[in-house]
Amino acid sequence: xxxxxxxxxxxxxxxxxxxxxxxxxxxxxxxxxxxxxxxxxxxxxxxxxxxxxxxxxxxxxxxxxxxxxxxxxxxxxxxxxxxxxxxxxxxxxxxxxxxxxxxx
Length: 104
Fold this sequence. Notes:
about 100 residues, mainly beta, seven-stranded antiparallel sheet
């Protein structure tokens, strides 16, 4: 599992992201991170979101993560997402994620 942490936050600085998938029934929100190398595309995956204030397109400039109760809070400028888990993955597909982490 590649949970979002301080080191992975640094990798994302100044990249852009696009809303890629939202599945309320699977309790999952996914952003595709646009990199300079298409072979190294990454996906930011939020699991069990409690609150979502986000953008479709987003330039990552001051991404930070904190905890509040049992939730993670991921914030950057005009977006804020509260969720139970956040993963940074490469080569994401819905089948890949369901095989690796299971579906709700």
